[in-house]
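Subject: Interface between my chains keeps coming out wrong

I've been trying for a while to get a sensible model of this assembly. When I model each chain on its own everything looks fine, but I need the whole thing in one frame so I can look at the contacts. Pasting all components below, labels as-is. Any help appreciated, I'm running out of ideas.
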Amino acid sequence: MSPAAKQYSGVPAWVAALAVVGATFVLLPLAAMVLRVNWAEFIPLISSESSVAALLLSLRTSLAATVLCVIFGVPMALVLARTDFWGQKLLRSLVLLPLVLPPVVGGIALLYTFGRRGLLGQTFEVLGIDIAFTTTAVVLAQTFVALPFLVLSLEGALRTVGTRYEAIGATLGAGPSTVLRRITLPLVVPAVVSGAVLSFARALGEFGATLTFAGSLQGSTRTLPLEIYLQRETDPDTAVALSLVLVVVAIVIVSLAHRTGRPSLRRARELS
Amino acid sequence: MTRPLRALTLLAALGILSAGLTGCAAPAETAPPASASADILEGSITVFAAASLTTTFTELADAFEAQHSGTTISLNFAGSSDLVTQITEGAPADVFASADTKNMTKLTDADLQKTDPVDFATNALEIAVPPGNPAGIADFADLATPGLKLVVCAPEVPCGSATVAIEKSAGITLSPVSEESSVTDVLGKITSGQADAGLVYVTDVTAAGDAVEGIEFAESAEAVNTYPIVALKDSTSPDVAQAFIEYVTGSAGQRVLAAAGFGAP
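Reply #2:
Try treating it as a single job with all components included. I did that and got this:
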C-alpha cells in the first residue's frame, strides 16, 4: 500500500519458502480445528447457558483487567523509559517476568500472595475482603499476566518517540504534569491503545493462573478457556465451537491492534 | 513427613518383593502351550493410564520390567478422557487403564480393544480437609453448611459425576465455591488452604500424606468408580501387553494398588 513497499521487494525465494512453511505451521492447526466444527449444531452449542456465561465473564473480566493494566502500566512504562536509577535494568526484567513465566507458576505466586494463607491474605481477611474463588481473583490473575504486554509496548514507543519535544516543552515553562498531559501522552496514544488491546487479548486467553488461583464456577470464575477445557471432557463439539469463538475474537483483536499500532510507528518515524 | 514416606518405600519394596515371588509362579499356573516363546517375554509397550494411577503404575511397571528383563514399559498418564481421545486419534498405545467405565466404553465403542476390558480396582470419594480440620467437618451433611468454602469436581469429570450421584442419593444439595476440572485441582485448593473442604478420591488423600486430612463418609459407597484395563488391538507386542494386564490384576498388582488406597474390583 505504501509507495516505499512497492519500490523494492527483494525477498529471496528461499526466504519466502521458509516463510510459507512457517505460516502453514501456524495456519494449518487452525484450519484443522475449523474442519472439526459441527456447523449444524454450532449456534446451539455456543449459545448454551454455560457457554454464554463463560463468554460474558471472559469479556467482563478481561475488560476490567485491561483497565487496571492501563492505570498501572502507563506509569510503569513512563518510569522505566524516562528515569534512570540504580537497579532499573533488573527491575525491568523482573516486572516483565510474567511474560515468560508459565501461567501456572503465576497462579501459585498469586496464591501465596493473595490466598487465604498468603502474604496479604490475613490483611485482606481483617479488612473483610475475600478474594478466594471470586471474580476479583480472575481479574487479578489476568492483570498479572497481561500487564507486561502494555508496559513493554508502551516503553518501546516512549523510547522511540524520544524526549526532544518534552525538553522543549519544559524549557518553555511547562511543569512535569503538563508535559506529560500535553506532549508525552498524545504522542504515544496509539501505543497505549495497541498495548491495551494486546493486554486484553492476553487476559482473554488466560488459563493457567486462573485455574490455579481462582477456581472454576459458572458465572463467577469459569472463563471461556476454562469452559473449553472442561467441555472437552464430555462434549468435544462444544469445546471446538467455543475454541472457534475465542479464535475469532482473538483475530478481531489482533487486527485492531495492528491498525492502531501503525500510526504510532509512522509518527515515531516522522519524528526521528 | 519422613516417616510416612519411609513407610511407603517399605510398602513399595514389599510390593516389588512379592511381585517377584508371584511372578515366578505365574507361568506354571497359566500352563503355556507347546511353544517355549511364551516364557520369554520381549518387547516394549506403551501404557496409557489414568492420572490417579501415576504412583502405583510407575511402581508396577518398574517391578514388571525387573521381572522380565526383555521388556520396556513406557507410561503416559493423563485424564481418562484425554487418553481415550488420544488413542482414538491414533496415538500408539498397547494398554489402556481407565479411571471409570464410561471412558472405557468410549474406547470399546470405537472397537479398538483386543480383548474385553477387565476391572482391576475401585476408588471411592473421601472428604479432604486442611490439616487440623479448621472448619470442623465430621460427615457429608456438614459439607452443606452455609458459608463453607467447598471445592468439588465439575459434573463433567468422573470425580464430579460421583459427587452428583452421592448428593442425589443422600438428598443433600452442595453449593461449592468451585467446580474444578480435575481432582488434582481440588486437592491443590485444600493443601493451599484456599478451601475448607473438598471431595477427592481415597487414593488422593493417601498420596497427599500430611498435607490433608481425610474423612470417610458412609454415603461414598453410593458412587464407587471402577477402573477397567484393556489391551489394544493395534498393539505391536500383544504378549507383553497381556502379561502386564495379568500382572496388574494378579496378586502383586492388587497388593500395590491396595497399599495406595484402591479397593478391590
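Reply #3:
Confirming on my end. The radius of gyration of chain B is 20 Å.
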